[in-house]
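Lab notebook, design round three. We kept the backbone fixed and only want residue identities now. Task for the bench partner: fill in a sequence for the structure below.
Input structure tokens:
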């Protein structure tokens, strides 16, 4: 076990629950650390159900294309914990991370605190002590009581599409979940809001009105769409004719548009040329990413291997639409290799893929005690009308997929599975 893993294991035992949404413990610890949240670079705080990480990836790419130094906080990590904390454009070094974790551990002195709270406090300390021009801060879960919601005066806030997810913690309707997401809105901070379901929009609108915030709405104040192989962005100040984003899928048009809207609405120093460079250089692993290397070499000639971390019904629908578009360009039998955590419903995930899939192979995510069993996922897939069978590992699933000539193979269902795949392929995020 590495030193980092040993520290994180100790920290994970400080609270009986993995998730316990509250601001009391994090606020106490940050006070004892000297309130690093008050010494951060200008913060852009991002909440939502899907698209948070992609939107942040676009913002980072565009700001860096303008020569700006950017801190980033996202979760979960795929392979190494360091991926959660990016300091001025570079993943935090292991020695620097370990030193910060141990400082926070010493200050906390064994008091009850969740893993995400203590690691977020560590990130805040690192962000405060290392200069940068901006901090892009992703909500972990919800918004109102999320550990990141300790910044009183962000430069701006963003809410990406709100949908059903984590219902056991956030509520069982989009409206209830939107209440939690809207908790990041702050008086005096401009807000950019992606397209929302009607009840989600109404909820966010009411929360914004109470704070005196006038949201900048997708579909009303700005719009983004693909046309003739280009991305067109339009708002009240004019139209931009841009290259399509490097990230794949129609949903990435919307994510890119929200990032561009934030740049313009928040008054960030990013010109059109930097927006163009950001769209073409953006990187966000395991979001419908082509996977090259020793795992793809296992497949039959002419096959493709893709990796996607989408894990809920909304993410599955976006993935399905992207795969339909791919099939129109190059028809190929579709094989899904699926592993899921038991907080998600496999039946909901499979629904958007009806009529698309040649075969489903299912996995139990390695090292995850809260993962669905492969046999259970396969049973749900069969109930939904798919040909499905459980496999012992991603290697055995790929060996089975290799029996299908020139297939389009997509590994999906969980970011935890995506991380295991990247590790096995020898291509961790950098």
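Proposed sequence:
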């Amino acid at each position: 076990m590495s030193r980092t893993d040993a520290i994180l294991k100790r920290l994970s035992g400080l609270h009986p629950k993995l998730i316990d949404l509250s601001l009391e413990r994090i606020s106490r610890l940050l006070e004892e650390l000297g309130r690093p949240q008050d010494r951060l670079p200008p913060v852009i705080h991002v909440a939502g159900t899907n698209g948070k990480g992609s939107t942040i990836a676009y913002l980072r790419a565009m700001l860096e294309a303008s020569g700006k130094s950017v801190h980033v906080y996202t979760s979960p990590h795929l392979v190494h914990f360091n991926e959660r904390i990016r300091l001025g454009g570079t993943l935090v070094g292991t020695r620097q991370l370990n030193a910060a974790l141990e400082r926070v551990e010493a200050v906390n002195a064994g008091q009850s605190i969740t893993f995400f709270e203590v690691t977020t406090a560590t990130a805040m300390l690192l962000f405060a002590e290392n200069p940068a021009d901006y901090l892009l801060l992703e909500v972990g879960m919800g918004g109102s009581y999320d550990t990141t919601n300790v910044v009183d005066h962000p430069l701006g806030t963003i809410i990406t599409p709100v949908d059903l997810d984590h219902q056991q913690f956030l509520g069982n309707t989009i409206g209830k979940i939107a209440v939690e997401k809207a908790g990041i809105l702050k008086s005096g901070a401009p807000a950019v809001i992606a397209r929302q379901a009607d009840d989600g929009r109404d909820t966010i609108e009411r929360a914004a009105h109470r704070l005196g915030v006038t949201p900048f709405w997708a579909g009303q104040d700005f719009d983004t769409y693909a046309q003739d192989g280009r991305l067109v962005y339009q708002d009240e100040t004019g139209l931009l004719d841009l290259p399509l984003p490097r990230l794949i899928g129609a949903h990435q048009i919307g994510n890119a548009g929200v990032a561009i809207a934030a740049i313009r609405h928040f008054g960030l120093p990013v010109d059109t040329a930097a927006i163009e460079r950001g769209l073409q250089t953006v990187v966000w692993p395991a979001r419908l990413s082509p996977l090259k290397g020793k795992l793809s070499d296992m497949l039959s000639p002419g096959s493709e291997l893709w990796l996607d971390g989408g894990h809920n019904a909304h993410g599955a629908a976006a993935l399905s639409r992207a795969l339909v578009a791919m099939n129109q360009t190059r028809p190929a039998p579709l094989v899904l290799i699926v592993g899921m955590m038991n907080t998600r419903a496999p039946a909901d995930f499979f629904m958007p893929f009806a009529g698309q899939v040649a075969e489903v192979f299912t996995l139990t995510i390695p090292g995850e005690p809260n993962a669905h069993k492969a046999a259970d996922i396969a049973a749900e897939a069969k109930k939904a009308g798919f040909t499905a069978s459980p496999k012992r590992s991603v290697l055995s699933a790929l060996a089975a997929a290799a029996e299908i000539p020139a297939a389009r193979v997509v590994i999906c269902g969980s970011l935890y599975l995506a991380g295991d795949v990247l590790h096995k392929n020898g291509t961790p995020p950098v």
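Keep this in mind before ordering anything: The chain has two domains: 3-281, 289-425.
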